[in-house]
């Protein structure tokens, strides 16, 4: 049985990159590969424990020289590299699969020394110096979730690779709901007649939840039946709560935090899906929403251009134009026929 060694560095929550890795592990296990996983956080474990032969802790100490981000844990790096070297020698994997760029910093020297191929899957772009310090240029092969990410890496470090769009289950899981279950809205104190705008994403700077809230507040002045729901947690959680209070939107904005399953929000709560990010490798939450027959409004930038066709499956707005986002919200909120038209096209595109 061929062995694949999988390295993943992620946060303490299941997000887009973790979802993609979980599906990858399921597929590799079904294909008969023996899988060994090194990860820095245990949030993956319950989803993959039945699919892999072992799960090992690895902190992935990072050597980095960047403005505001400098680290040189040489002793820890050497220790981690030695552990990986022993693991590869012991198990003789046919491939080292790095989920994200950081694991390459350990995998590339070890893989090249032992003549083991290294495949790096980039989930999002990174600064140019990161690619070089992570040794990405010397990985055997690269995989990207979008043409944008592919071109970004090629421009910054001169390496090309293959685009494989992140997949979701459009047949049994992410499907349109025949009938909305009102209990989900009741839990958030949202009326059945309100038009709900929703964003699923980490509450972090590049997802721009503050940008969305301010644009929503402008739209709300013209259309009182609107409601906003943010699904996700992150470093901006307290700041976003404070902004909602500052703008007096406590009755119109619900912050659900991290939830174990986003599906009920797409199927039973949202009328319009939004992703106001300044940058996305792809934007898998938009594909999920589209599969559930929701129109989306997204920033006209980066990988988001590949998941929404403007005025076909949804609307796009310029990255620095909050008034365009406000206008898009109002347009779709006021026109149920247009929402339905975009929703059907979005479902087809997701499939």
Overall tally of structural domains: 2
User: How many helical elements?
Assistant: 13
Global geometry? elongated
Strand elements, count = 15
Structural class: alpha/beta
Strand content: 15-25%
The major sheet is characterized as: 7 strands, parallel
What do we call the CATH homologous superfamily of the largest domain?
Answer: Glycogen Phosphorylase B
Radius of gyration: 21 Å
Main sheet: which strands, in order across? 3-2-1-6-7-8-9
The share of residues in helices is 25-40%
| CATH class categorisation of the largest domain | Alpha Beta
Q: How widely separated are the two ends?
A: 33 Å
Please mark out the parts with pLDDT under 50 across 5 or more consecutive residues, or reply none. Answer: none
Q: Could you say what the CATH architecture of the largest domain is? A: 3-Layer(aba) Sandwich
How are helices and strands ordered from N to C?
A: EHEHEEEHEHEHEHEHEHEHEHEHEEHH
- CATH topology name of the largest domain, in short, is Rossmann fold
Average pLDDT score: 96
Topology:
Elements: E1 3-8, H1 16-30, E2 34-39, H2 45-48, E3 54-57, E4 64-66, E5 69-71, H3 74-91, E6 95-99, H4 104-113, E7 118-121, H5 128-133, E8 141-144, H6 147-157, E9 162-163, H7 182-187, E10 195-200, H8 209-220, E11 226-231, H9 237-246, E12 253-257, H10 263-269, E13 272-275, H11 284-291, E14 296-299, E15 314-317, H12 322-334, H13 336-350
Parallel strand pairs: 1-2, 1-6, 2-3, 6-7, 7-8, 8-9, 10-11, 10-13, 11-12, 13-14, 14-15
Antiparallel strand pairs: 4-5
Helix pairs in contact: 3-4, 8-12, 11-13
């Amino acid at each position: 049985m061929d062995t694949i060694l999988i390295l993943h560095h992620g946060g303490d929550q299941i997000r887009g990159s973790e979802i993609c890795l979980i599906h990858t592990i399921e597929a590799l296990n079904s294909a008969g590969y023996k899988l060994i996983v090194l990860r820095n956080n245990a949030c993956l474990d319950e989803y993959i424990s039945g699919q892999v032969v072992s799960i090992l802790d690895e902190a992935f100490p990072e050597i980095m020289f960047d403005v505001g981000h400098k680290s040189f844990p040489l002793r820890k790096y050497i220790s981690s590299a030695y552990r990986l070297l022993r693991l590869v020698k012991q198990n003789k994997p046919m491939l080292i699969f790095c989920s994200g760029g950081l694991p390459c910093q350990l995998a590339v020297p070890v893989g090249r020394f032992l003549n083991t191929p290294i495949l790096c899957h980039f989930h999002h772009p990174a600064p140019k110096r990161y690619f070089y310090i992570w040794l990405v240029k010397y990985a055997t092969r690269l995989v990207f979730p979008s043409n944008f990410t592919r071109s970004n890496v090629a421009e910054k470090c001169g390496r090309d690779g293959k685009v494989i769009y992140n997949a979701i289950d459009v047949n049994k899981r992410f499907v349109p709901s025949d009938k909305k279950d009102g209990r989900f809205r009741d839990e958030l104190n949202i009326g059945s007649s309100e038009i709900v705008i929703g964003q699923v994403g980490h509450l972090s700077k590049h997802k721009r939840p503050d940008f969305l809230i301010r644009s929503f507040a402008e739209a709300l002045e013209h259309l009182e039946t609107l409601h906003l729901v943010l699904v996700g947690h992150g470093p901006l959680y307290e700041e976003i709560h404070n902004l909602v209070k500052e703008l007096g939107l406590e009755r119109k904005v619900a912050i659900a935090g991290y939830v174990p399953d986003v599906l009920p929000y797409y199927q039973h709560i949202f009328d319009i899906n939004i992703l106001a990010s300044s940058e996305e490798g792809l934007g898998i939450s938009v594909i999920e929403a589209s599969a559930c027959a929701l129109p989306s409004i997204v920033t006209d930038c980066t990988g988001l251009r590949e998941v929404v066709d403007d005025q076909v499956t949804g609307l796009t707005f310029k990255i620095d134009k909050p008034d365009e986002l406000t206008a898009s919200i109002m347009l779709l909120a006021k026109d149920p026929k247009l929402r339905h038209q975009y929703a059907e096209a979005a479902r087809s595109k997701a499939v």
